[in-house]
Please model this.
Amino acid sequence: MVQFAIVEDNLAPRFAPLSLLRPVFELRCGHFTAGERLRRACSGATWGAILRPELVATYQELFPTGHCNDQAWLAAAPTILVNGRWLCGAADLAQVQRLQPGEFASVARIENDWAAISLSPEKVRELVDATPAAVSDWIARQLPGTRRIEVGGRLIEYPWHLIEHNPEQLRIDFAARRTHQSQELTDPRIAVLGDPGQLFVDPTAHIDPFVVLDVRHGPIWIDAGVQLQAFTRVEGPSYIGPQTQLFRANVREGCSIGPVCRVGGEIEESIIHGYANKYHDGFLGHAYVCPWVNLGANTINSDLKNDYSSVKVMVDGTMVDSGSTKVGCFIGDHTKTALASLFNTGTTVGVMSLVLPGGELLPKVIPSFCRVWHGDLDQLPDGIESGIASARTAMGRRNLTLSAAQEALLRHTFEATFVERQQTLDRWRQRRSKTA
Model:
């Protein structure tokens, strides 16, 4: 029987800080991550993953049945490797399941890249190192000698692509799940604008009176245990994940929120990955927010420049032109913002940082394990220890614990981001000295 392995390739560093604590294929777009989408489509099949070594322990903790960086397992049976940057639908995954050894799938109109490749056990045994960099190089050498078929979907290359493609992926995922039985909304005080067939409400979700669900421009999926407070408005396409609560929120189209989030204020074309809070008013647009982030009251980000030019974003140490006029912010795990924090377009905030506003726009790049304090940018004074303690507290409030593997990954990330942190702080101090 064929087995599947989802692969994180050598472009993973581009997705930091979002990918510092998870593989790229566990970043959300639409209803699911790419990993979730593959596991659902290939239910019952044996599966594994190829990812950065430092992520193996935490990933194995989440998915104990998966085979992580397991060379012996890869070579035990015919294996289909699936690119973790591939956004697709159920039909594309079904086509990939029919690949024969010696065939690879390429996204239509994209050359020299791959969505999936089918390999015999003998071919897989040529792999001497099951790590993302080694696998990327090895697959590139295989493609010229294999038979190519074209599939749909797209390959993401930068973090803002998750935001750009989220509205379409929301539509694709809704269509694939539409066989579920939706709750019938009988309260006339709940307004559904558009075709009710474009709305799914889980039977366990609760919707207060005076909620507006607008599906005129796309579908809305409201998952299990969701609570929508009165005077909330949700526009499709959008996804509200399990156990999420919306408090008087204005959710514009193109949003994925949850699971287990508490959200208020205005949100537009943003992804809140899960276990994050934006309880109070404030605008969040064209943004990606990782788990265990808390955005304080009136935290606001800009997602459009005054001159309408394309937004530049720091990617793997280099400022990259996104080619898009609408890019908000990217916020890593366990970061906290205080009252009235103001983020510029294209801002990146690393893992476990503290943002205390100084009445002006915040730095566009805030490295991991740093703080903005009285208008200055600096490393957390005690390194990582207060952040670890805060993480334990925040997770405990959701009846979860910070595992030993998760703590070890945070400590590894603290060391791994040292050079980037020091370089960014040096540049910040140089700029400050010139303007003093």
Notes: The chain has a mean pLDDT of 94. Residues 418-435 form the longest helix (18 residues). The radius of gyration is 22 Å. The chain has two domains: 3-157, 162-435.
